[in-house]
Each structure stands twice: as structure tokens, then as C-alpha cells.
Amino acid sequence: MKLAAEIELPFSEFWELTPYEFNLKVESYYNKKEENFKEKITLEYWNAMWTIQWLGKKSDRPKPLNEILDNLYKENKVMTDKQMLNQVMALNRLFGGVVEQK
């Protein structure tokens, strides 16, 4: 019920919705949150650009805004079994684990 309150859905209306309709409302809510987040990132970006323009050096410029926004919600890449095994082995070494041979 917390989610229904968070998306400003009246309690009485919640019980009248089908699961599909509720899902549409939730998707709409999260899309609005994502757009608000992107807007905040954009404002912070331009604030940084103006600050650098007046106080910084040319080499201090951040990445292009489109690149930053595109990378926000990139899907995680799928690892192969060998890549996962290598990652687990690296983490095992990092935390002092021992490899046991069977």
C-alpha cells in the first residue's frame, strides 16, 4: 500500500483498478521520476559548465551532456560463464580466499 500512497493514488481508487491498470499507473510514476532525475542532472551539468567557464580551465570540462544522460540507464551487459568464473576468482583472491582443487 505504500507504493499506492507514493504515486498519489487514493486508497479507494486502488481497489477499483485491475492489475494491468495499476501497472500502467506505476510505470507512469516511474517515468516521471526518471524525467525529473534527468532534468536535475541537466541542471547540475550546466551549473558545472558555467562554474568551469568562469573559474576553471578548459581541460576541466565534463563529458558531453548527451553521453552522461545516455549512460544513466544503460542495461547491464551479460557476462559469459568464463567471464563470471574469472570475476569470482578475482573476488576470491581479493578477499583472501583459497582455491581448493577437487
TrEMBL record:
Domain of life: Bacteria
Record-given protein name: Phage protein
